[in-house]
Structures are given as C-alpha cells and as structure tokens.
C-alpha cells in the first residue's frame, strides 16, 4: 500500500519503479492500445456500415413484407371475387334453369291455349252456322206468320178504305187471271208470286181495285219495289191495282220509296198512307 501511495505521490518514480520490477513491456501498452483503438474504430466503422446495410436490408424486407401483405390482400379479394363470381354463376344458372322451365310451361300453356282457341273457334263456327240456320228459319217463320196475319187482318185493315172486300190466295188469283188470258206467262208468274191478293171497291169512288200485298216482318226497299212492280203489271194488262206492303216495321228508305211509287204501307194493322187508296 505504501509503494502504491508513493507512486501516486511521486509520479517521477513510476518509471524507475517499472524498470526495477523489470516490467518494460508496460511501455508498449500505449502503442498497443493505439493499435487496438484503430482496430476498434475500424470494427466500429465496419459495424456501422454493416448496420446501415442491415437497416437497408430491413427496410427492403419491410417493403417486401408490405408488398407481400398487399399481394395477399389482393389475392384474398381475388379469392372473394372468384367465390362471388362462382356464386353469381351458380345463381345465374339456376335462374336460367328456372327461366327455361318457365318458358317450357309458357309454351305448353300457349299450345293448350291455341288448342282451346281452335276448339272454341270450331264451336263458335258451328254455333254461327246453326244460328244462321235458325235465323233463316225464324225469318221464314216470321214471313209465314206475316202472310197468315195479312190474310186475317187485311179485311179489317182495308175495311175503312174498301168495301166488298175479298181475300184471294195466290192459287185462286192465278185461276182468275189465267182465265182472263190477258197476261203473258212471265207476267203471270211474276204477279202471282205476291203473298196475298185482295179485291174490293174504293169507298171514295166505288171503283174496283186489286191490292197486291207483300208481307214481311221488317219491310225493306225490295219489298216495296216488288209490290209496285207487280201492281203495275196487273194494272197494265188486267185491272187497276195498288201495291201494298204489310209488316211490323219499315226502314226509312223503304218508307220514302213507298211514297215515291205510291205503295200503300200497313204497319201493325193500320194504314200509314191511306191517301194512296183514294
């Protein structure tokens, strides 16, 4: 302890003390330390370079990791998109299958509807044909009923205009005119085609007249013109005659035509233009 304190107290004794102890190697320590320092500094510089490289490597690795994470996210989204696309494709296929089924059912329904329409059309056509026949039959029945009604009603209808009334059936009238021998066969056939014939004397002047009657449920222009034509033939070749139409109703143009041709119109049992028979 005393030696140590002496060396501390008297620094100039340190060299002598070192030599006395034969420790000259200690003089080389500073140089060694300097060399060691250089080595340490070089190592530190190398470490610093390596640390910088490690930092760059770490940064690169971090960026690569980020890129990998983004790539993973993209891959996950792609996977999700693929799954969604697969789901959509499946749903689309299902929809297409349902649409196909619906189309097939619609086609079947259309075929059935067409079949029903065809059958219905046939039924309607048959009904129309039957209805047409019924209408013809009804028209014939109406015509026959009006002819019968004319024979029954004419004496009363014409009683205010004519006296000494006699109703002739077409066959009776045919024999009367044929015996007179004043009409040609064609004219006679035309005249006797009328429905009813009435003979009497006009109350206005007691002159004899024939009434050539066309009877129809609904009177048209053709009925009026036939009555006028047949009365004209009879007037020219046999005896004065008045064309007469009898029915339930008359068309406006037929009424006008009757006025033009001087045809007596009898509707529902009453003369509508009695001045014709005066």
Low-confidence stretches: 134-143
Helix count equals 7
Q: Percent helix among the residues?
A: 55-70%
Please state the structural category: alpha/beta
Describe the protein's architecture and organization:
- It is a single chain.
- This protein is of the alpha/beta class and 278 residues long.
- It has a domain at 159-277: Trna Endonuclease, Chain: A, domain 1 (3-Layer(aba) Sandwich), CATH 3.40.1350.
- 68% of the residues lie in helices and 14% in strands.
- The strands form two sheets. It has a six-stranded mixed β-sheet with strand order 1-2-3-5-7-8, with helices on both faces. The chain has a two-stranded parallel ribbon with strand order 4-6.
- A hairpin with a 5-residue loop joins strand 2 and strand 3 (208-215).
- The termini are far apart.
- Residues 134-143 have low confidence and may be disordered.
What are the main properties of this structure?
278 residues, alpha/beta, six-stranded mixed beta sheet, 7 helices, Trna Endonuclease, Chain: A, domain 1, 8 strands, 68% helix
In short:
It contains seven helices and eight strands, in the order αααβααβββαββαββ.
